[in-house]
Design a protein that fits this description.
single chain, alpha/beta, TIM Barrel, 2 domains, 15 helices, 10 strands, elongated, disordered C terminus, binds 3-hydroxy-3-carboxy-adipic acid, binds copper (II) ion
């Protein structure tokens, strides 16, 4: 298992730029790169300089920032492209070529032998340039395994630093990925990278299976943005690995995840999904009475991630009919109200009765708690009407 020392290759500035809503200015790219550097991502991958003149300038500008995170760019398996990539000053070049029959027949039209020759020329060139070189086969999961291993073994002999598996169409499942990476681990010396799309919801599980089988590098993007519905999300991978042992992700500045997700969500004009790993708005919200009681006693009962490790706090939701009296007691304590158990139980019943009639707000529950504390004021004829002294309902 390489969980103890895996590296993240964050591709928000390459795969992420392929997300339909993404348009990053140079300043925004630098902001994302700097944040990923502060987070501690080992690598960032940048759009190929061959895409456009601005892409080339941006690649060079980010390579020049002197970040601790290593910069990579991504190119087709062509000598001309790779030369332009090296000239931008990045630390490494990720080369990719399709090996599935679909891509060989309908995209570049090359045979496996031609691919091996092409890769040889490109990698021999990169070797002399003192940059890290990675070779990956696009659409790996729909390629013939014998073809794949021939290609991987050939580039391994040349001395490539990493070989990449790309589940380009998101068709792989964890068992397949585990078997594929295990076999590749036996066949090559190079490090192994996994890049997984999320079309069928397996991207994080597949990345984790890859790590369990010996992969050393995982591609992520912030919020998982990318072509179609994207790839493994940075926060999702972190959550998965943390759940095995928080020490495995202690090298990252976890409290920056919220800032990373918020920044990118805003830049690509989407909300952070409510059910997002770690940063979704309900990720640390507890509701049912049975849950809230246990969580208030010991959060580990219903939390595998500690919100405080991510700079976040949990929320106990009490204004609803599933509520329990322990949660109401917790709220009374928060408000500094000293109420007896009987009083708390009575309010809990009232909350449930009211919540059966209409959706409740926290303010309404707070009013009930306050009125229990000051029942006499409520009854005095000259007292202010209760609602006037209360905050407005949200
Ligand atoms: C794409 C290419 C890629 C490349 C992955 C890699 C993929 O289809 O745009 O270089 O390992 O998913 O195959 O993102
Ligand atoms: Cu991809």
């Amino acid at each position: 298992m390489s969980l103890e020392k895996f590296s993240i290759i964050d591709s928000t500035l390459r795969e992420g730029e392929q997300f339909v809503n993404a348009f990053f200015t140079t300043e925004q790219k630098i902001r994302i790169a700097t944040l990923l550097d502060a987070f501690g991502a080992e690598y960032i991958e940048l759009t190929t300089p061959c895409a456009s003149p601005q892409s080339e300038r941006d690649c060079a500008a980010i390579a020049k920032l002197g970040l601790k995170t290593k910069t990579l760019t991504h190119t087709r398996c062509h000598l001309d492209d790779v030369k332009i990539a090296v000239d931008t000053g990045v630390n490494g070049v990720d080369v990719v070529i399709g090996t599935s029959s679909k891509l060989r027949d309908f995209s570049h039209g090359k045979s496996i032998n031609q691919i091996i020759d092409l890769a040889g020329g490109v990698l021999e060139y990169l070797k002399k340039q003192n940059v890290e070189m990675r070779f990956s086969t696009e659409d790996t999961l729909r390629s013939d395994p014998e073809d794949l291993f021939r290609v991987y073994e050939a580039v391994d002999k040349i001395g490539v630093n990493r070989v990449g598996i790309a589940d380009t169409v998101g068709i792989g499942n964890p068992r397949q990925i585990f078997n594929l990476v295990s076999e590749l681990r036996r066949r090559v010396k190079a490090d192994i990278e996994f890049h997984g799309h999320n079309d069928t919801g397996c991207a994080i599980a597949n990345s984790f299976a890859a790590l369990e089988a010996g992969a050393t590098h995982i591609d992520t993007t912030i919020l998982g943005i990318g072509e179609r519905n994207g790839i493994t999300s940075l926060g999702g991978l972190v959550a998965r690995v943390y759940s095995i042992n928080p020490a495995y992700v202690a090298k990252y500045r976890l409290p920056l995840l919220m800032h990373l997700d918020q920044t990118v969500a805003q830049l690509v004009n989407v909300d952070i999904p409510f059910n997002n790993y770690i940063t979704g708005f309900s990720a640390f919200t507890h509701k049912a009475g049975i849950h809230t009681k246990a969580v208030l006693n010991n959060p580990e009962t219903y939390e595998v991630l500690k919100p405080e490790d991510f700079g976040l706090t949990r929320y106990i939701h009490i204004a609803h009919r599933l509520t329990g009296w322990n949660a109401i007691r917790y709220r009374a304590d928060q408000l500094g109200l000293e109420l007896t158990d009987d009083e708390i139980r009575k309010i809990t019943e009232e909350v449930k009765t009211m919540a059966d009639l209409h959706p409740l707000t926290l303010d309404e529950v707070d009013s009930l708690l306050h009125s229990m504390r000051n029942p006499r004021i409520e009854n005095e004829s000259d007292a202010q009407p209760e609602t006037e002294s209360l905050p407005e309902a949200a």
